[in-house]
Each structure stands twice: as C-alpha cells, then as structure tokens.
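Figure S7 source data.
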Amino acid sequence: MTMSILELDDIQSGVLRPRPTPYAATYVLFRIDRRDGGRELIRRLNSVVASAAQPESPHRDTWVSVALSFQGLRALGVPQASLDSFPLQFQQGMAARARALGDVGESSPENWEKPLGSHDVHIVLTALAADEQHLEAVMQRATQAYRELSGITAIWRQDCHVRPNEKEAFGFRDGISHPAVEGSGIPSSNPNEEPLKAGEFVLGYPDEMGSSDSIPQPDILGRNGSYVAFRKLHQRVAEFRRYLQENSPNPEAEELLAAKMMGRWRSGAPLAKCPLHDDPQVGVDHASNNDFVFKNEDPIGYITPCGSHIRRMNPRDADIAGVARIHRMIRRGTSYGPELPDGVLDDDGVDRGLMFAFVGAHLGRQFEFVQSEWMNKSDFFGGAAGKDPVAGASDGTGNFDIPKKPIRKRLQGLPRFVVTRGGEYCFLPGLRALRWIADLRT
Ligand code: HEM
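Tokens for the predicted protoporphyrin IX containing FE complex:
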C-alpha cells in the first residue's frame, strides 16, 4: 500500500501536533441559539485555528481548536442527509452511550456537571498558551469579540494546566506514549511501533483496514476531519493515596504497588525498563521511556501486569484477543483543579482531575472499544474479573492481579478512583470544512 500524502494545511493543528510544554489551556462550550450567530462564530474562529502545517499559531502564541457536537452541527443548519452520514455513536452523543462506557452509578449522566451531556453543548473551543497570563489576556480579547456576537451563549468553561514535571493528579508523569501517524512527520514515541495509517486519525485516508470511504458527506465536510471524545474525569487523590498505603507494608512497597497499577513509576520510567526501582532519568528520557514491547520479554506480566493501566490501554505486541493496532488513539489530557498537598490522606472536597481528550477517526472501534473492553473487562488478556485499577469503573468488588512467583498477589475489592463528571463526542472539522459550515445558506 502506498503512503498517503496528508493535507496538513487543512487539518486542525490540535489533531496531529503535540502540545507545547508547559502550557495552560481552557475549554469553553457554546450553545447556538441562532444559526446565523453560530455561523459567524465559526467564521471568526476559522481565522485563528492553526493548521497542522503551521509551526506557529496564526493567533500569536495561542493555539485554538474548534470541535462541534452532533447537536451543534444540527443547530448550524447542516443538511439532514449530511447529519445522517455521521456514525451512530456520534449522532447519539456521549451521555447516550453511558452504559457501554461504564458511566454508571456516580458517573452516570444524571450526576454529571451541568450542562455536560445535555443537548445544549454545541461548540467546544479549546485554547492553549504557554502560561496562564498569556491565556487570560487572549481570553479577555476573545470575550470582548464574543460580546459583539448575538445568537450564541458561552455556557461552561474549564481551565486546565500542566502540573510540574507533567504529572497528573495521582502523581504519575503523563503524555509520554503517542502513536506515530504516517505522513505527519511527527516521530513515534515507541521505536518498536510502525507508524499507523493516517486514516486511523484523519478522515479521508486509508486506515489500518485499508478503508477510506466511510466519511461524513459531503466530502468537503468530512475530509481531513477527526473525532474527539472529551471527558471531565474527577480523581479521588486522597483515596488513591490511602489505598496504596493500606495495601503496602512500607513506603517503598507503596511506590512499587503504584507502579504495578500504572505500568510505570511516578517518574514515567516504565516497569519494562526498570522492574525493581524507579529511575527518574529514564522517566524523562524520550529516547528510552517508551522503547519497549511485551510479548517475548514479559508474556505473563511478571514485570508489567497485564491488568495495569498502560498495558490495558496499549497491549503493544502482547498476545491478546484481537489486534491492538486498530484500537490506538491520540490523547490530549490536561489536569484541572489545585494540587492536593503531598502527604494529605483526607479528601478536602475540592474538585481536581483530568480533562481527557481522545482524538481519532473511529469513535467506535477506538475510544468506545478501549473504554469498554480493555478498561472495564479483562477477558481480552485472559484475566480474572477486574477493571483498570487506576481509571476503571470499579465498584468495590473487582480484583487486580499482580503476577509473581511462586504465587500471584491478588488485590481484592478495588474502589473507584476516577469518576466521570461529563463529556461529549465532537467532530473536529478540517479548515475548509469550517468555511463550508460558516457559508451554509440553509
Ligand atoms: C483520570 C484518568 C486517567 C489517568 C490518571 C491516566 C493516566 C495515565 C498515565 C500516567 C499514563 C502513562 C503516561 C503515558 O504513556 O503517556 C497513561 C497512558 C495511557 N492512557 Fe491513561 N489515564 C487516565 C484515563 C485514560 C482513559 C479514559 C483512556 C482511554 C480510554 C486512557 C488511555 C491511555 C493510553 C492509550 C495510554 C498510553 C498507553 C501506552 O501507549 O503505553 N487513559 N494514562
């Protein structure tokens, strides 16, 4: 199969380009009350969205992405035949898919933060800048421009930031492992993984199955677009810390247990390279911190448990039911909320966690599959009933097995450490598609 030439100048930068580090970001949701106002907003945003071909942002040092929900496309007057050409999951929206995603109990949509999960979420704007001061200055200018527009309402805002050393709220370095996309020029973080076909992430190109035909219509709307699944995930940091402490005889064992649950030490160093002790230098070394596979080196999971977060989310070459390559994703996660000071074991009642974003061309076989089959079940690697010990929808009855000789260690009754506060499926149109939407006359 020949390599596709990606039309980088038509793809939103946020799809392919890794984010700068460090950065501050904000998510703003808009409701479209009148079609003409919505179209005018899209027209204005179109001029500030960078393409993946541009190393610099057209809006000085701020990077903007624009995504639309199914309800948003409808509110903008996208014709019905075109709406019908989008995949079912997207048409239904994230809240309607709650059961498949494990969003039950406390995480179920009726407990989500309003207006998340409602039909009012139409446009999701993400802006990011090098620091909070730059971001705020841009947001103030944007707010003034927004006041001149009628027919749209900003209904929600969530600020996020990168924590020191890129650590998420549980204390693990994040943003290490990314798939390489053929034709993007952005190198793979894992030298053992062949770049994935562009059609896995951008619509209109051949994917790993050799198909490129099922894109939303008309072609100008679907081509060079992607889907994004964004989720606000609250993290129970104090509970996570207490759990580690209560299940470990000493602080060193506590760190090892944390690493077994994640598959990496908190520094980012993978167990696959540092099985017994953390090595912070490996954690930050891009040349080696993702240079590993599982099949021959660790088939049973004695080093990296098959049920750990990173091995579930990307089993690499391990023997599993199915093919890992067709379930890969680009992730753009950013923390929100203040840090829980080191050593605090009691919940302070403050909301903190991760604004998680999946980017890919297939909501069903990528995001939903990974979330339901790999995150919340264990059959794919032949494990006993259990869910992802870090981010799974545990209900206090699941197990987490740590393979060990002569006999495995089994943790029972895992609590839920991550609660879904809301989210939505959105479409990230290409730049020509944004202009097409702005110019609609229906
Ligand atoms: C609050 C919830 C979550 C936390 C704290 C979390 C944390 C982490 C951390 C620390 C890593 C290792 C660093 C890296 O490889 O970049 C990681 C990797 C990863 N996570 Fe999560 N994550 C969360 C939720 C999710 C969700 C919901 C998904 C997808 C449905 C996901 C998919 C992945 C994937 C695909 C990887 C890369 C695995 C690899 O290639 O080795 N994570 N996560």
